Task: structure prediction
Amino acid sequence: MPITVTAPRGVLTPTGERAILPRLTEALIEVSGLTGNEFFTSVVGGTVHILEPHDIYAGGVNRPVVMVELKLPNIGLADQPARAAFIAAATDIVADLAGPEHRREDTWVNILNAPDGAWGLGGKAYTGEALIAAVTGAAG
Result:
């Protein structure tokens, strides 16, 4: 479950740049109700991209927006309350790890879903059913 964070240099604190992905990972696992599930935990990863401030735009103008993008199979965060919970948690995490000048409205969170069978790990394409079996097997 890749998480991509894109932020202008200087918006996140130096500690925030290192802590944001572990915190977002924890939030996704918690919102998914899978805390302690080894398989699910092992497939959540991501990248942090820190760009020069002049390379970030919103509304066609240079603006210090932090973008969090989460890519999931279509079974992940399957209902609106779960998606809303992740969006709220991600926004809170960015606020906690950014400098005091960062505004909440300058945090954008997107959740993208892959169709059934279009999610792959280690060269294996997983259907939703296969992912559920893997997660359930790790819990048992």
